[in-house]
């Protein structure tokens, strides 16, 4: 099903790019063939980026995923830029590209030059009839001796077909100049190419850099005064995978440990591969330090990567998995539920009743749940604060607008049916190593008593 959806989307997009970047800008069959082959090869690389890691292992080959995912980012911004340019392109083709060329002025000398010599036997007094040039009145006749113009039979000096005067009015509505259309098409293609590659390069630098360290204060009505200022380091969507390395994990650990948090919450999507493939990259997470420990809930990508094995590995690394369960920490209740993907794949989905029923109603509840959409169910169980990830903040603007169609909160602090929801952008990336408008982040959530 996923592969079918990708084909349905990828095919038309690549056809559109071929039309605008190759067909409209190339005048030779050879050039179009080369362009078509290049577009098809990139489309295949894109599909392979999704298929190859799962077929032969996340770490078996990074070249194909890198090419495919980078093309995905460039393709996305090429398409967006070209779509934005569609209206200016149409306007330019209807005005500048169709601008009429001025007609060659018609003078007595030019008319005389086109009159053939007198036919034998007509003599100098013979008369001849000339069909009017394009633009002159169809029935106009110029009579007189050969080579001489009888101006008495021509339109007057101010008419549209003036002879011997200045140039006539240009004809409008003629066919578009192909060379001008070609110039417009090539200009749009060059602009789109430079824009897409420039944005992508900026996004790569952002995605591979240090995560932004955010700090947010969230008041909880039931929080005891003794816990005012309690600090939770929230990280999500680390996405260890074929395009990351061990330094990615180390950078995240350094950032979290530098926050001196009371508690660490890892809200899912830690990996994109099996324990055998990514265990070494995950090893630095064992160095996470906080006063009250580190806690983990599954994201959808854990269920694509062998969730049971990773739950064991996470515990070995010193983090406690919260699988539809809760525990009391000082004056609050910390709970965690499985991601909804677990239920979809038959591996145990979220069970809010199991996690929250029978708790102490006098304590505030902080819930770890990978997807913000889970807040609708959390609100029914009286959760005070839900900490989530999953959205990546959209990762590449304007994807945030698309993500907003599914999730109630995309980034930062929001509210769902009376439950506060904080969503981190995540510390890693999925697919292209590109982030535009949504830098990676780790958030220090500071709870405040009211």
What does this 3D model show about the protein?
This protein has 450 residues and is of the alpha/beta class. The protein is built from 13 helices and twelve strands. The chain has helices at 2-23, 29-56, 63-94, 108-114, 178-207, 246-257, 275-282, 300-304, 307-316, 340-344, 352-356, 375-380, 399-403; strands spanning 212-220, 230-235, 263-266, 294-296, 319-321, 325-329, 332-336, 365-368, 385-388, 412-416, 419-423, 441-449. A six-stranded mixed sheet has the order 1-12-2-3-4-5. A hairpin with a 2-residue loop joins strand 10 and strand 11 (419-423). The longest helix is centred in the first third of the chain and has 32 residues, at 63-94. It starts with a helix and ends with a strand.
What distinguishing features does this structure have?
single chain, 450 residues, alpha/beta, 6-stranded mixed beta sheet, 13 helices, 12 strands, 39% helix
Our Rg estimate from Cα atoms comes to 35 Å
Q: Average pLDDT across residues?
A: 84
Q: Helix and strand string, N-terminal first?
A: HHHHHEEHEHEHHEEEHHEHEHEEE
* Biggest beta sheet attributes: 6 strands, mixed
Poorly predicted spans? 117-173
N-end to C-end Cα span: 49 Å
The secondary-structure class comes to alpha/beta
Strand content: 5-15%
Helix count equals: 13
How helix-rich are the residues, as a percent range?
25-40%
> Number of DSSP strands?
12
Q: Based on CA inertia axes, which overall geometry fits?
A: elongated
Query: Which strands sit side by side, in order, in the main sheet?
Result: 1-12-2-3-4-5
């Amino acid at each position: 099903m996923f592969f079918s959806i990708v084909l349905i989307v990828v095919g038309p997009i690549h056809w559109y790019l071929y039309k605008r970047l190759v067909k409209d800008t190339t005048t030779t069959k050879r050039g179009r063939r080369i362009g078509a082959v290049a577009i098809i090869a990139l489309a295949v690389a894109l599909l392979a980026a999704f298929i190859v890691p799962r077929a032969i292992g996340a770490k078996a080959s990074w070249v194909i995923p890198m090419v495919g995912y980078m093309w995905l980012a460039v393709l996305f911004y090429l398409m967006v830029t070209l779509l934005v340019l569609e209206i200016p392109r149409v306007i330019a083709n209807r005005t500048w590209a169709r601008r009429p060329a001025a007609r060659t002025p018609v003078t007595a000398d030019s008319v005389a030059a086109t009159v053939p010599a007198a036919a034998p036997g007509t003599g100098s007094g013979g008369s001849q009839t000339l069909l009017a040039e394009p633009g002159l009145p169809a029935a106009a006749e110029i009579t007189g001796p050969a080579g001489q113009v009888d101006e008495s039979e021509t339109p007057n000096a101010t008419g549209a077909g003036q002879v011997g005067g200045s140039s006539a009015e240009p004809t409008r509505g003629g066919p578009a100049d192909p060379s001008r259309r070609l110039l417009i098409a090539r200009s749009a293609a060059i602009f789109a190419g430079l824009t897409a590659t420039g944005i992508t390069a900026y996004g790569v630098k952002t995605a591979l850099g240090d995560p932004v360290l955010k700090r947010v204060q969230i008041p909880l009505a039931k929080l005891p005064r003794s816990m005012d200022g309690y600090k939770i380091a929230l990280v999500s969507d680390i996405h260890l995978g074929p395009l990351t390395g061990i330094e990615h994990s180390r950078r995240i650990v350094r950032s979290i440990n530098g926050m001196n948090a009371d508690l660490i919450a890892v809200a899912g999507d830690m990996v994109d591969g099996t324990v055998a493939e990514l265990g070494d990259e995950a090893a630095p997470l064992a160095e996470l330090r906080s006063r009250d420990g580190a806690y983990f809930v599954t994201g959808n990508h854990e269920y694509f990567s062998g969730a049971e094995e990773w739950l064991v590995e996470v515990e070995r690394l010193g983090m406690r998995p919260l699988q539809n369960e809760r525990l009391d920490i000082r004056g609050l209740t910390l709970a965690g539920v499985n991601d909804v993907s677990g239920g979809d794949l038959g591996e145990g989905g979220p069970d809010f009743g199991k996690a929250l029923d029978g708790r102490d109603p006098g304590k505030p509840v902080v819930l770890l749940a990978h997807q913000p959409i889970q807040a609708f169910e959390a609100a029914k169980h009286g959760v005070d604060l839900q900490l989530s990830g999953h959205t990546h903040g959209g990762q590449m603007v304007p994807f945030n607008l698309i993500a907003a169609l599914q999730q109630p909160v995309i980034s930062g602090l929001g509210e769902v049916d009376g439950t506060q929801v904080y969503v981190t952008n995540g510390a890693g990336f999925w697919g292209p190593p590109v982030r535009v408008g949504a830098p990676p982040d780790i958030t220090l959530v500071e709870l405040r008593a009211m």
